[in-house]
Protein 1
Amino acid sequence: MTGEALDILYSDEHLVVVDKPAGLLVHRSPIARRETRFALQIVRDQLGRRVYPAHRLDKPTSGALLFGLCPESAARLSGLFAGGEVEKAYLAVVRGVAAEHGVIDHPLAERPEKLRDPREGEPRRAITEYRRLAAVELPFAVGRYPTSRYSLVEARPRTGRRHQLRRHFKHVFHPIVGDTKYGEGRHNRFFREDLASSRMLLAAVEISFDHPFTGRRVSVTAPLSAGFRTVIDRLGWSGSVPSRWLARGEFGATIDSENGP
């Protein structure tokens, strides 16, 4: 990100995918009245036209963010998300040694139980698939344990519930490092003070979907930010991450010419 502009990962006459940095809201929110910068306004000013968000990324999450360039495009894209037809890949650093592969099938309400309005109905099914890419044990004592263990995971949500990955990994006792809402303060503090990482270590590194107008498969990569890459380097994990998710400056998209007209 340079100045007020966001990196454009892919664009055509119907849609645009940008790289949202951690700490930036997608659009205005009544619960964040003091915020003055939003991805929607930045991209609108950058392109000189209105844009329409097709989905959302939490403020502390970085990575690929998709906008439609007209209401119809946004509606079609949102329909793909609602129908589970968008493939999303995330990288996250979590506490503990996660299983090599796993599926978290745990229902989630729109909001956590203590904040939920009974009128919102029952929790809805939520599914996350993940695999462990790497793990490390560090000489950092927390509680009665003399060392601390962390894992790098690739996560693929199969549903789109609010804070799904953050809540799911908390549910299986592997909270995401740097998550001030669902994570653990002692581990967050260690990464902040010893690894100079003050952000939540969750990034949307890839998004794939069938183009809503051409039918062709579009796959867009959003390589990790410098700060996230530094953490991975310091933990010795660089060789465990697909190169396309590390090569800053080489981001882009692939279009499957065999699909569609």
Protein 2
Amino acid sequence: MGGSPTQPYARITLILPNKQTVEVRLYERLQTTGRFPWRFRIGVPSWVATEDGVEPAEYSVWVTDRQLRPIEGVDLSMVPTHRSLEALPTPKPSGWVVRPDPQRRGGTLVHDGICQHAGGKGRELSFLEALDALMRPGAKACYDCAAAEVLLPALELGQEYG
């Protein structure tokens, strides 16, 4: 059920629900859409019962990056990477808009300029102004448009180097 012996793979660490870890084989990466845009097909070592006893086997499963940890010194570049058509980058908005968050008192939501929730109201912001707006207390990025997909990674990158 796992990968074939000739299929390229890299060693990687799988983090189990009880926080134990096990070294597994990473066979491929798939970029999709949704909350966890990357999926990883791994082979987990296991055992299978046969007529003659028990034999080593491998169980193939897809996981997200939250279940994996790289192994220092292991090159992952030879692992095939695929992108689904839905995962192609969305066009970058021409501007951003900050609106009050109807769900949270005093909160704000940052939308791309063409988002249905932007309501066509408010001053259009530049990319840097939108990032500044997201750094304010109570601010969130809209997940119904490109705001969360485009702005949050940029904001996280800036915090890593800031």
Protein 3
Amino acid sequence: MQNAAPLVTLTARKRRTSPMRRQEALMAALLILPSTLGILAFAVLPIAASLGISLTDWGGLSKPNFVGLQNYGAALHDPRATSALSHTLIYVLLAVPTGVLISLTLAVWINNLKAGWLRTVFRTVYYLPMVTIGVAVALLWQVLLAPQGLVNLILGWLGIHGPNWLGSPAWVLPAVAVFSVWQGSGQGIILFLASLASVPRDLYEAAQLDGARPFEAFRYITLPMISPTVFLVLVLSLIGALQVFEAVLVLSNGGPGDSSTTVALYIYKTAFTFFKMGYASALAWLLAVILIGLMVLQWRNQSKWVNYDQV
């Protein structure tokens, strides 16, 4: 009987506080409601709508007619879509490895600077292109890469005849890749710097006492320790490269001819130039399938070289 009184008191206290808990739960639901509605309105519903549109021949203004998988079949036999995919893959091979390597190299260099204010300055300088309006920066690079632009002028001083960067089918994709690496390397640098800061300094001191050279310390200490970040930067770079649109649109508009038309640009032109919304949606879903497939492939292979145990 003596133990029954505290139990009754505790039960009564729970009953008294239950309305307060319900009020807190209601308040929490109200707080997350705007973001939930935003995700539904601007992410989930558009994705579902694009899937439905891909099964129609909708042109934007006309009445949509259900055509099933006809758009997907047409995309698989579309030579322009195949050409755009090949251009995208070439761009990926040019931009992704180069961007990751340059970001890592610059991050290691900045991390080894003795003066803290210098590290801050270079972090800011390299990250500025990321927060600058992409179209404005691309227009600036369009001027720099013109036949009589600053880049060819400098090459001329060195005795090198510069090509028509944006007007030559052989040079336009490398030029776009260089611009994209310059613009996007800041993100990788910041991520790598954060990862490098977490590597214990005593590991380097022990390696130095053992006579390890700087490259050996980087290979056997730094690289394994920051391998999860390398994987993250690689994934983010691949996602961005497969969806490259703004740089190609502003710098070359897919030209000359279709020599720099990527999948994203081809989807845009199909939808808003030729007004084939259904076909463009099907192309977008095929690009998503390719992207997901590459991500799954990366995820399965990352266990061979990514060391999470040392994080």
Protein 4
Amino acid sequence: MDKLIFKDEYDITTFTTNKDEIEEKAIDHYCNIGKVTHSPLSYDSSSPLREPWKSIYMPINMASQENINKLNRLITIMDELQEAIKDLPTKKAAEPNKISYEIIKQLPLQILEVILSLFNYILINEVTSEQFKLALLYPIPKPTWWNYDINHTRPIILSDCFHKLLVKIINS
């Protein structure tokens, strides 16, 4: 974004091209975009839930050992990694490291073995790459012309394709 229209603290519509101010306003906007203002209909955590919501949101007392073992297992089979890669979507944005799913699908077996070792290292040691923690947020204009008003955008977050691949394998 190189231009932005916003309401200042006096509710006056203001226009800026100042990069720092645009960044500050964008961060503030996206940090607060989902916040709910309290009203008489707002959820109150001190009030008990009614059925059917009460039973739906009841905490699970104990996860089965079988399910815990599934989460704690290593990715031991190359076929599992290759199957997950085969099912990756195409024509998706490659951010933040610019390595796309199309590139991952073309990797030779030797590189896939390194990726498999990396994923297992992450699972064994319960650590993740700093790169996995990075994501890029882009404001995408809604169907109408946004006219430099951030309220007429929706956020899209792009994260590392290898991170998404690991999550896909864990969730399957």
